[in-house]
Design goal:
Shape: globular
Strand content: 25-35%
Helix content: 10-25%
CATH class of the largest domain: Alpha Beta
Strand order of the largest sheet: 8-7-6-9-10-12-11
Distance between the termini: 41 Å
Number of strands: 12
Number of domains: 2
CATH topology of the largest domain: Rossmann fold
Largest sheet: 7 strands, mixed
CATH architecture of the largest domain: 3-Layer(aba) Sandwich
Number of helices: 6
Length: 235
């Protein structure tokens, strides 16, 4: 259902708990309502309250991971922090999700070198890597919207992050000292063995799941609120 709604409204929708179910809401016009009713059986509509277009911002709160402050541009940042300012736009990733936080924790512990962000979303991991001294930093994603968001956010933070559309499961990507893949488990398992990286941070899956990666040995695991991130090193 979420996938179908995202297909109809790629700019996003709101998800809230309702009794024993989940309610998905899209802010749209009469034409959009017609599309909803054509796709779903249980649809209701009501007028929206003033300020609806900014409600989504309340869900994106800043977080602090070590020396990093990661947050949206409408929040005030501490003067003594390394700020990573990210406007998610229509791409996934603000830094607050447990998988992103766990990946950033692992990233901060690694020796600086070149870096590749696979499935970059809004560019949080790539921009954070560049901010703390990794170079050069590259980013790829299957979604052109994500690549555009990463480039925009990199410019906002004054860091160099060349980004491009690519499929890490089949396309040739830059060999780097460190790579990160905060994506679905099946994509992690298909893409990471193709990477020419000495160390790989993986995340995007539940703590009951452990990636099986050819050519890499498991080094470190972190968990938070039911999610997990792992560090693998090339054998």
């Amino acid at each position: 259902m979420r996938a179908k709604l995202l297909e109809l409204f790629p700019e996003g929708f709101e998800e809230t708990a309702a009794a024993e179910a989940v309610e998905l809401a899209a802010y749209t016009d009469d034409a959009g309502e017609e599309h909803l009713r054509a796709e779903f059986e249980d649809v209701s509509s009501r007028p929206v309250q003033p300020g609806w277009e900014d409600r989504w911002r309340s869900f994106h709160r800043p977080v602090t991971i070590g020396p990093l402050w990661v947050g949206p541009p409408w929040e005030d940042r501490p003067a003594d922090a390394l700020a990573v300012v990210v406007d998610p736009g229509r791409a996934f990733g603000t830094g607050a999700h447990p998988t992103t936080r766990l990946a950033l924790e692992l990233l901060l512990e690694l020796e600086r070198g070149s870096f590749l962000d696979v499935g970059c979303g809004s560019g949080v991991l790539a921009i954070a890597a560049a901010t703390v001294g990794f170079a050069p930093v590259y980013a790829v994603d299957l979604d052109p919207v994500a690549v555009e968001a990463t480039e925009t956010n990199a410019d906002r933070n004054g860091v160099a992050v060349p980004a491009g559309v690519a499929d890490a499961r089949s396309d040739r990507l830059p060999a780097t000292d460190v790579a990160a893949a905060n994506i679905a488990l099946d994509v992690v398992e298909a893409a990471v063995p193709q990477l020419g990286a000495a160390a790989v941070i993986t995340s995007g899956y539940l703590d009951e799941e452990v990636p099986a990666l050819a050519r890499f040995g498991h080094a470190v695991r972190r968990t938070r609120h039911g999610w997990a991130a792992d560090l693998f090193r090339a054998k």
